[in-house]
């Protein structure tokens, strides 16, 4: 999405997230934000995320300050809405301060550009046997599975014959989830692994393909909003966030009342996932670590008490019509495998509890299992 980046921040900004006041401190052409003993580098634009009651619409919200130029609804919750508000000023300090004091504004924060990490790992030598722990199942229902990633090459031989409910680009606001950059290859691999796994068990999920590459809070929120509007049963995301903005947390927490599965890659930093991946703060979210065939973690995998599942993390995928293969590894591969296995179970009418999943994915020594290599 086009945006007007700040180029010369001059004064600190303050906002509240998770009931804590956070400060954005100017530093060169960006800001520094302290969150849970971490210093994060962020960028701002001329946009704000504003929460109001349901009685407001874009027209009424645009009257809250004369500098407001555009208003777009990003998420409608049960009792409130989150809006993307574009203003004339950059950075939007004056409008932010004004709305923080406005009686009709429930919350407001800058639209932050976070440093997001893709959960891919360096190729690991030696093929690991892919455990087939489930017998073929008789599908009794169609499962809708949303993949939020960097784009999907639907001409790829491994992605032929997909059952697609919707494709959408949350960054560009287009009904097209195809790759837009040469580096947009990860989503294709995730979709290929999902499809390869489900088809082994005779299950063809209905896919919601969402391209979402940027890490603006507004784009993240829109991507998950689209998945929710499409009533996805499972959402697969391979991105690692260092900070969980309130708008996204509120959307996902409310959506969990419908009992979807949120499957997130734990990350490949050989670090404690509780501190390195903010998605661990979501109750009910499934954080997936990368495991060997015996259940031990690969040395690169994030670990710790926030890990819910250890899953296979080394797969051979067909990359072209000549059946040449390449390795797909890392916690993103493990998360895709878990999402596929969930789809297989759900297609047979079984909605497994998270604490049951480890029994049919891979044996683990406990939720806080760590690799002996750590």
TrEMBL record:
Family to which the UniProt record says this protein belongs: Belongs to the peptidase S8 family.
Alphabetically ordered keywords of this record: Hydrolase, Protease, Serine protease
Stretches assigned to the Peptidase S8/S53 domain: 141-348
Alphabetized InterPro entries for the sequence: Peptidase_S8/S53_dom, Peptidase_S8/S53_dom_sf, Peptidase_S8_subtilisin-like, Peptidase_S8_subtilisin-rel
Organism: Rheinheimera soli
Entry annotated with the keyword Cell wall biogenesis/degradation: no
Keyword Membrane: no
Stated name of the protein: Subtilisin family serine protease
CDD domains reported in the protein's UniProt record: Peptidases_S8_S53
Active site: 149, 186, 332
GO BP field: proteolysis
Pfam family, one: Peptidase_S8
MF terms (GO), sorted A to Z: peptidase activity
């Amino acid at each position: 999405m086009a945006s007007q980046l700040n180029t010369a921040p001059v004064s600190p900004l303050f906002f509240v997230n998770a009931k804590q006041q956070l400060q954005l401190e100017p530093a060169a052409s960006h800001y520094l934000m302290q969150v849970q003993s971490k210093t994060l580098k962020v960028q701002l634009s001329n946009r704000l995320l504003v929460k109001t009651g349901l009685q407001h619409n874009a027209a009424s919200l645009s009257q809250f300050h004369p500098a407001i130029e555009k208003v777009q609804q990003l998420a409608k919750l049960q009792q409130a809405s989150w809006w993307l508000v574009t203003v004339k000023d950059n950075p939007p300090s004056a409008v932010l301060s004004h709305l923080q004091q406005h009686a009709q504004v429930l919350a407001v924060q800058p639209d932050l550009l976070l440093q997001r990490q893709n959960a891919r790992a360096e190729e690991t030598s030696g093929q690991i046997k892919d455990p087939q722990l489930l017998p073929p199942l008789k599908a009794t229902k169609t499962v809708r599975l949303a993949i939020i990633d960097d784009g999907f090459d639907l001409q790829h031989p491994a992605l032929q014959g997909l059952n697609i409910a919707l494709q959408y680009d949350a960054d560009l606001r287009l009904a097209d989830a195809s790759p837009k950059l040469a580096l947009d290859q990860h989503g294709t691999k995730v979709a290929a692994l999902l499809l390869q796994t489900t088809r082994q068990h005779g299950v063809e999920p209905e896919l919601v393909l969402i391209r979402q590459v940027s890490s603006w809070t507004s784009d993240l929120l829109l991507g998950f909003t689209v998945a929710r509007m499409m009533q996805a049963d499972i959402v697969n995301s391979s991105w690692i966030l260092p900070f969980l903005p309130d708008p996204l947390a509120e959307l996902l927490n409310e959506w969990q009342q419908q009992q979807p599965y949120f499957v997130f890659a734990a990350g490949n930093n050989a670090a404690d996932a509780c501190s390195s991946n903010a998605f661990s703060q979501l109750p009910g979210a499934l954080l997936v670590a990368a495991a060997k065939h015996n259940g031990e973690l690969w040395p690169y995998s994030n670990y710790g008490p926030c890990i819910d599942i250890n899953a296979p993390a080394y797969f051979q995928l067909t990359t072209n019509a000549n059946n040449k293969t390449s390795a797909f590894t890392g916690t993103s591969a493990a998360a895709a495998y878990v999402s596929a296995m969930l789809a297989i179970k759900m297609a047979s009418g079984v909605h497994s509890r998270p604490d049951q999943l480890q029994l049919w994915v891979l044996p683990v020594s406990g939720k806080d299992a760590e690799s002996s290599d750590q």
